């Protein structure tokens, strides 16, 4: 609820918080309070939410609950193509690919990218070609390597972050320069990866 970039036109000041309402139906008669997962009892939720200006007389169709994230133990169950491993690492009779949070990627962009990776894996399998590995120097490649490494312990789905990228050699102390170096290295690795996908016939040329 951080009101970054929002200014109250009446006062010219930034408010303490901003509530996002997302339409739940085509008629615009029901809205979702975005980000309001909570363990508060329903009666207490109604009391607190009605303290928000504009919601004093709101009718609540349902109340917030804490959602549970279900996911596979990816380091033990998925290979780098996001294909489900069989017992003791053997191949299953029929290939099964997993993407999104279920496969261990947290976040919208990460889920989309994992879906693309699973699709490329299926295309490679059907085409009888080898799937080029995603470079660890790229953001998704580093996340995928972490999520499918059998040595990963206490596994939890995570977002892309600099902590899973291979360290720079030599190290760079300045944060701005370090992040720029990560980006430049990743861009170069991504260009080479795209070329390998083209050569494998998994994507079209530019």
Plain-language structure description:
This protein has 206 residues and is mostly helical. It has 2 domains: 67 residues, no CATH class; 126 residues, FAD/NAD(P)-binding domain. The chain has a two-stranded antiparallel ribbon. Strand 1 and strand 2 form a beta hairpin. The longest helix has 25 residues. It is extended, with a radius of gyration of 23 Å.
Instruction: Going across the biggest sheet, name each strand in turn.
Output: 1-2
- Looking at the overall shape, the CATH architecture of the largest domain is 3-Layer(bba) Sandwich
> What order do the helices and strands follow?
EEHHHHH
Shape designation? extended
The value of Rg in angstroms is 23 Å
Helical proportion?
25-40%
Main sheet overview: 2 strands, antiparallel
Mean pLDDT comes to 90
β-sheet strand percentage: under 5%
- Poorly predicted runs of 5 or more residues: none
Task: State the CATH class of the largest domain.
Answer: Alpha Beta
Can you identify the CATH superfamily of the largest domain?
A: FAD/NAD(P)-binding domain
- Class per helix and strand makeup: mainly alpha
What is the number of independent domains?
A: 2
CATH fold type of the largest domain: FAD/NAD(P)-binding domain
Tally of individual helices: 5
In short:
With 206 residues, the protein is mostly helical. The protein is built from five helices and two strands; from the N terminus they run ββααααα.
Key features of this structure:
206 residues; mainly alpha; 2 domains; 5 helices; 2 strands
Give the arrangement of secondary structure elements.
Blueprint: E1 21-23, E2 31-33, H1 42-49, H2 74-77, H3 108-127, H4 139-147, H5 175-199
